[in-house]
Amino acid sequence: MKSVTEKSLNFNKMIKVNFDGGNLTSDAGLLLYKEFDEKIGLSQSIQETFQVNDSVHHRKHSNDEVIIQKIYQHITGYHTDDHADELKHEPMFTTILEKDQLASQPTLSRLNQKFDKETMKLLQQVNQTLNERIQAIKPSDHFVFDLDSANFTTCGNQYGTNYNAHYQTNGYHPLVLFDGLTGDCMKAVLRAGNVYTSRNVVGFVGPVIKDYKKMSPRVTIVVRGDSGFAVPALYELCEEQDIKYAIRLKSNKRLTSMAQDIENEIRHRMDINNGAPYVFYKEMTYKAANWNKSRRVIVKLERPEGELFFRYSFIVTNLSYRPKNIVKFYQNRGTMENFIKEGKNGFAFDELSSPDFYTNATKLQVAVLAYNFENWFRRICLPKKMNKSTMATVRIQLIKIAGKVVQKARYTTFKLCSSCLYQKQFWSTLAKIQRLPVLE
Question: What is the pTM of this model?
Answer without folding.
Answer: 0.94
